[in-house]
Every structure is written in C-alpha cells, then in structure tokens.
Amino acid sequence: MNRASFVLLFPLMTAWVSAQNAEQIYKSASKSVMTLYVHDSKGRVIGNGTAFLVDANGIAVTAYHVLEGAQAATVKFADGKSYRVLGVIDANPGQDIAVIRIDHKGRPALRVNRQVPEIGAQTFVIGAPKGLEFSISQGIVNQVRRQEGLQVIQFSAPVSPGNSGSPLLNQRGEAVGVVSYQLNDGQNLNFAVPSHYVWALDFRAPIQKLPLKGTSAPVASTPATQGPWKRYSFQDTGLDFSLPMAPEWGSSKLEPDIAQIAKRFRSASAEADGLFVSFTFFDFKPGQCPKTRLVADEVLNERTRALESEGVKVGKGPSLVTAQVRGADEAHAIVNDLEVEGVPLVETTVIFRKGNRLWMVLISFAASDESGPKQLKRILDSLTVG
Predict the structure, then answer these.
(1) Which of 36, 74, 283, 320 has the greatest count of CB atoms below 10 A from its CB?
(2) Following DSSP, what letter does each residue of 131-174 receive, concatenated?
(3) How many Cβ atoms sit within 10 Å of the Cβ of residue 63?
(4) Are residues 202 and 241 in the same domain?
C-alpha cells in the first residue's frame, strides 16, 4: 500500500475499531488515569481531582480549576504508585483545561479524539468522585452546546466533585473531552470541554512550577497588549481560535453567484491596538470546493492588484508557502509587506480546507509593533478545525 492510500484509509481504519463495553473500557483506559491530589504549603492534601496521560513522556491533562490555590500536587495511579507533578506546561483558565507534567515516564497514554461526539453517543468517565478513586460511570451525550463562546459537551454519566479533569471517553476508549463542571440544581447536568481545545495549548512550553501565577490568562506567557486572550468559536463553521479581543460577527448572506456553488457563508473580524484579524468561511456544495493552492494563487494576484489600485504600496515578492492548520486537510499562507498611508504593515493570509469547508483568515499589524510577530504566531497556532 502506498503512502497516499494509507493516508486516505487511516480515518476509516480508526472508525472500524469495535465498540467496547464498560469492563473493557475500564481495563484499557484506567492505566492512563490518575487521581490528582493538591497540597498546601505544608504538604497537606487540600483537595483532589483527576488527570489523564496524553503522552507517555509524563504529559497529562486536567481541569485548570483543580490546580487553583495548590502549592504542590501529586498523582496516584491505579496500581497505587504516586509521583510528583513537576509543573504546568500550558493552560487556558477560560476553557478550564491545563497540561501538566509528572515525574514519571513510560506509562500508556490515552488516545485523544478531536472530533466532538454525536448526540446520543455512549460515554464513560473514570475518576475520583468524592475521593473514591478510579470509579467508572456510564451515560450518553445529551447535547453539544455553546456557552459564552465556548463549546461544551453535556453528558449524563454521573460525576461529582473529584471528577474534575477526568477523561470523557467514547466507546473506543478515546478521550473526547475533559470533565469540567456540573449544575447542582438538576440531575446529571454535567459538562466537559471537548478534546480539540486541548490541542490548541502549547505542549512544548517551558514548565512553570506551582503555584499558578494568576488566573486571568493562559499560563504560557505570551504578550497580549489588547487584553486577556480568550478562546472563540467561529459561529457554526467548526473553527476555533484564540484572540486578545472579541470578534464581531459579520454577514452570512450568500451572493447569488456564490450560492450556485456554496451552501453557507460566514464572516467575522476583530481589531484593537493596531492588530486586525478577519475571518471568512464557505461551505461548498459537493465537488465545488477548490484546492487551497488555487485559492491562494487567486488571492495573491487579485488582492495585489486591488491594493495597488487603491494606492497601497505592496512590497516586492509576496511569499506563498504551504502552511499547517490543526485539523485541516491542507493549507497555504501568503505573507505581504504593505504600506498604507505611510505606515508599514505586515499582512498574512491563511487559506485552509477540510472537506468541502474552506476558511480564510487575514491578520495584519504594524511592522514597528514588536509584539506583532508573537501575536501572529499565537493566533496561527490556535487555529483548530473540528
């Protein structure tokens, strides 16, 4: 089998993995789950949550709020062995997720499925409700919702305090979410953060020891002059991203000529302190979605001509490169040096596609802004297609 055939078949192969029952789920997944104990400055246990390994090198995921106020933390596996938490690699308090590293390597990690589960799908939770370590519960996905711009999975598998940070597992034993909170004025109104948010965090960031430094921004330090960085979802398009300012949702009306080849259109933009970001989305009819290289070539030529007609100076040799966007089938990027009313700007346009869905994200900032390149990288790294 050649490589191209393998790439095409791989998604089908994962779908063919047979569903498992609760007993099988527990036997396979519990090896990667840990009870997370938080300690005060005197080493006393002041609470517990749950965490689970996503990499055999000791990288694990938990709920951010479990670590708030902790001076130190330890984890305990089902075999009774305990290890120190070395620190936090990255986190997003607004999404209630954190990536930690423990002082141990070599244990199996859970497979993380970035796809949001279907409503009605079977789910399982392994954790430490009320300190009852390595308990398993079973339920279904009740709904997938948007709350304050954040996508959340509502599920019915029973959870209690101590389950925070537990993996929400599908029938193949894959983590599809991170258990976050519950509504106490109802029955089994439980919520998890989808796994695709986890991959927006920086697993390569330097470890920061406990206690956490503040709670209003991600632990990994990247300058954000516009305000706290937050996670947003581009309406119903499947794109999630991080920005230091809230976007404004634009038109969703399809022009008559575009309606012949596309089913949906969405737009949005955000601007603050010299940083401008715009988003465009098309959901094409089957067989009508163009390749990103073709779109990039058209954007490169047509936008350059349009800018020059408006009196904008375009730098020599705009670059067109292959890009990577998490979850996308393919991506290309264009980088332009412009001068608008005497102000030099750097403009980057990223075109990416998944199936028949295509997005374009344009980011520009003043060339003199020293924080601009870091903000650009952070936005690009945060783009996640679901």
Answers:
(1) 36
(2) G-TTEEEEEEEEEEEEETTEEEEEE-S---TT-TT-EEE-TTS-
(3) 26
(4) no
Task: Answer yes or no: is 16 within a domain.
Answer: yes
Residue 25 to residues 49, 110, 243, Cα–Cα distance (Å) = 20, 11, 37
Per-residue pLDDT tens over the stretch 322-341: 899 999 999 999 888 877 66
pLDDT of 77 > 50? The answer is yes
In this structure, the answer to whether residues 84 and 166 fall within a common structural domain is yes
DSSP result, 32-51: GEEEEEEE-TTS-EEEEEEE
Q: With a cut of 50, say whether residue 126 has pLDDT above it.
A: yes
Residue 204 and residue 248 share a domain: no
Q: Are residues 166 and 245 in the same domain?
A: no
Domain extent, residue 126, equals 1-216
Contact at 8 Å (CB) between 80 and 137?
Answer: no
In a domain, 223, yes or no: no
Reported as a single tens digit per residue, the pLDDT across 23-58 is 999 999 999 999 999 998 888 888 899 999 999 999
Cα gap 144→127, rounded to integer Å: 22
48 with 183, same domain: the answer is: yes
Query: 326: which 2 tokens?
Result: 């998490």
Residue 167 forms part of a structural domain: yes
**21 and 51 together in one domain:** yes
pTM of the model: 0.55
